[in-house]
Write a structure and sequence with these properties.
Layout: H1 2-11, H2 20-43, H3 55-80, H4 88-120, H5 126-130
Length: 135
């Protein structure tokens, strides 16, 4: 939802006049689409059919790349906001897009951390934490 807000807010401005917003649009739309595809994959449990693919590693790499590219998109978006813009609504939307890009960056960073823990097997759930081997 936050990624959708980023590209919707930028798309509602005159972003084509500023080259920096092209990068922000690319990053936000690309990762929004891929995230929705991963969500649908897990919702429909398609990862069980493609058991050859190491899903924890794929998700960790995806989240790490998304975090790094969203850092660049956030910095680009925040640096390109001009408070002396002659169109006040463009300024408000671009500033809001910068804020939401920061939130998306943080969310992907947290997902990277949790994906790394899942990949390394450090995370546990209620079922595995109850099993003890006291032989």
């Amino acid at each position: 939802v936050l990624g959708l807000l980023v590209w919707a807010l930028i798309a509602d401005t005159t972003y084509h006049l500023h080259a920096a917003y092209g990068w922000v649009m690319f990053v936000s739309i690309f990762f929004w689409i891929v995230t929705v595809l991963f969500f649908m994959t897990y919702l429909l449990q398609l990862q069980l059919k493609f058991y050859v693919i190491p899903w924890p590693l794929v998700l960790m790499i995806f989240n790490a790349v998304a975090t790094v590219l969203y850092i660049t998109a956030f910095v680009t978006c925040a640096a390109a906001v001009q408070p002396t813009s002659w169109r006040q609504w463009d300024y408000n939307r671009r500033a809001a897009a910068s804020f939401f890009a920061c939130l998306v960056m943080i969310a992907y960073g947290a997902s990277t951390f949790f994906s790394f823990r899942a990949w390394k097997g450090l995370g546990s759930n209620a079922a595995t934490s109850q099993v003890t081997d006291h032989a």
